[in-house]
Design a protein that fits this description.
Length: 117
Amino acid sequence: MGLSTHVLDTMHGTPASGMQVTLYTTHGDKATLVKTFTLNDDGRNPDGLLYDSASLRSGTYRLMFDVAGYFKSRGVALPQPSFLDKVSIDFGVAHTNEHYHVPLLVSPWSYSTYRGS
């Protein structure tokens, strides 16, 4: 139960170790910073869950992934401006008794996400 994320670099076929991610709560156009973290060697939050089941609340959230910064740090030559800079995923949590997993599959030119388990 709770909220988690996982990022896979589809260009290199590896977890996106070192990518910076920011979590916000959102209310309409207003976003409130919850935390910023750097993904570990497995492409996950080094502290585990972003919210545990006791802390997760119904509402809307945003995860922002620094895609261009990550690929630049891997030595990928990106055009300026890069096609993808930061990927923002806005999502809702309706049932706090369920686990919400937000994975991101990403390259410098594309991304995909879904609600995982």
